[in-house]
Amino acid sequence: MAAGTDPVIAELADWAAALEPDDADREVASTALVDTVAVTLAAAGDPVVELTKDLPEPLRWAAVGHVLDFDDVHLPSTSHISVVCVSATLAAGGGARAYLAGAGVMARLGTALGWSHYTSGWHATCTAGAPAAAVAAGVSLGLDADGLRRAMALAVPAAGGVQRAFGTSGKCLQVGFATEAGVRAASLAAAGASADPAALDQWFELVGGRTEPDLSGPALPQKPAVKLHPCCYAMQRPISAVRTLPADGLDPASVERIVVTTPEAGMQPLIHHFPRTGLEAKFSMEYAVATALLDGFPGPADFTDTAAARPAVRRLLDRTEVRTTSGGGDDLMAGETGILLELADGTRAETALDLPRGHPGRPATDAELAAKVASCVGEERAGEIAGLTWSAAPGVLRAAFPGR
């Protein structure tokens, strides 16, 4: 892709500026709004709230919304689309169309960056997220295609982020940095700042982009996967797999050996094999199995420092062996994950699963989505949040997280 031909910038900006969502698109946007606000409110007691109290709203909202790792994920782009694009849209006063424009750009840009970009260690939520946040905010501010091109180019300096941050505050904060930079870039573009659209093309090549974005299909190609457990998406499948085992008579204390067999692609973000903190536990295959065995349906309380340090957890971690298989595809959900338990009495329990509940191929039910919202905000507020509108959402976040 030759620098200066700007196929990425020009086509994505033109697509976003011309977007006219249909009812199905708007339904996707509504689900994203409710889910993102719910998981953001659920993190009200997290230390990152205090850390970000004096920082701009888009940074704060995105960082708090991502810290539990409970927000949705777009699998083809391996990125957390909604926490970036909902936060940017709300901070700039936009609605469903602005979210969909930003999310559509992020999905297409992240997918074009490809799996090799992710396996190189980049955090695609940040690399694809900064230009996408610029689009979401830019559409909210009424920018035309030329303005969106300039906004995306101005967001390039913040279009980075690395996986080594996983398991630390750095992960959610770098998502916040990317989101705020996109909103800032859109505001500067709206004020008349100039930028060379070819900057994004050069950046795209430098971070390993190889194919041009596909502009076909609905606003958001493939719906985001909704998480039912507050941890890395690569852990949703092993947790769901363990939960298919018969619970009756399966005492975790009787488990002598655990063998997990999974495609190596699914282990890419799971970098903590003996997690010491709740944040590290969110990126651990071994902890996924342990918490599912011990806690049944893992929730926020099962990903704290105290929960990760439990003797029963450490015992199971010591007895877990992870075997990776090659092939099967290049994405987090390639192939299937198998779980084998060997018990003290010599018996074995075994299961395997390809798609967890919440995956677009196995969507969460309305009841499961409602239960997630209630678990995040409490039964008394669940109805309010489930019916949230784009115009009301900023007030809800400002009331929960008052800042400067």
Automatic annotation (TrEMBL):
PANTHER family found in the cross-reference section: 2-METHYLCITRATE DEHYDRATASE, 2-METHYLCITRATE DEHYDRATASE-RELATED
Family named by the database record: Belongs to the PrpD family.
Transmembrane feature ranges: none
Domain MmgE/PrpD C-terminal: from-to ranges: 229-378
InterPro entries hit by this protein: MmgE/PrpD_sf, MmgE/PrpD_sf_1, MmgE/PrpD_sf_2, MmgE_PrpD, MmgE_PrpD_C, MmgE_PrpD_N
Natural source organism: Streptomyces ovatisporus
Protein name per its UniProtKB record: MmgE/PrpD family protein
Residue intervals of the MmgE/PrpD N-terminal domain: 62-201
